[in-house]
Design brief:
The chain is an alpha/beta fold. Helices cover about 15% and strands about 25% of the residues. The chain is built from four helices and 19 strands. Helix 2 crosses helix 4. The protein is globular.
């Protein structure tokens, strides 16, 4: 049997957001060096500089910080159905689609918008994780693969499971406080160019910049 290796064609990023042609983006904003992967659906969301998504990611009504890494099949702020109505089906609010009225029910869409998700800078969200409505995830946090996040996550915490629970911190409390003080994610492009090579050694990095 012959070995076959055909790597994908690498596309160099730029300050202009890179959005895959198969993705659907509605009323959203993206910062510089952002990369949106294939088959994403992003609705009324803000995505910060350098953040990227892989394939089949859904993001609704969310604000996402800079340098955040979002793996494939992640769902952020899945939309709720109205459980207090006679039926939970689309027909009561996407009425126009079914020829029941000329206009849709604005009330339920405003309700969905009011439960935004906020995700900080330098967050890593693992494969098939789900972040539920109204949740805030702190800077530097890690969301384990398959986790369902129903509560706020502290900065630099690692959470896993269903529902997601913290299992450890990435660093000591002292280092976390210093990283939050440094706020390197707010550095200019010039500063990043000059300092990125220093970011592999946490001890010397924190010592130098605090």
């Amino acid at each position: 049997m012959q070995h076959i290796h055909q790597p994908g064609r690498k596309k160099e990023l730029s300050s202009k957001p890179s959005i895959h042609e198969t993705s659907h983006i509605l009323d959203s904003q993206a910062g510089e060096w952002v990369s949106i992967g294939p088959a994403n659906k992003i609705v009324e969301s803000i995505i910060g500089d350098y953040t990227y998504t892989m394939d089949d990611v859904t993001i609704n009504y969310s604000t996402i910080g800079k340098f955040t890494s979002i793996a494939s099949h992640v769902c952020i702020n899945p939309t709720d159905h109205p459980m207090n109505r006679v039926t939970q089906h689309h027909m009561t609010y996407r009425r126009a689609d079914y020829g029941l009225a000329h206009l849709d029910d604005v009330e339920i869409f405003n309700w969905r918008r009011s439960n935004r998700v906020t995700i900080g800078h330098d967050v890593w969200i693992g494969h098939e994780a789900t972040v539920m409505k109204g949740v805030t995830i702190g800077h530097g946090a890690v969301i384990g693969s398959g986790a369902i996040v129903t509560k706020d996550v502290e900065p630099y915490a690692v959470v896993v499971g269903v529902p997601a629970k913290p299992i450890k911190q990435r660093f000591s409390s002292n280092i976390i406080d210093k990283l939050l003080e440094i706020s390197w994610w707010d550095w200019s492009r010039k500063e990043l160019n000059e300092r990125y090579h220093e970011m592999n050694d946490i001890v010397s990095f924190v010592k130098k910049y605090t």
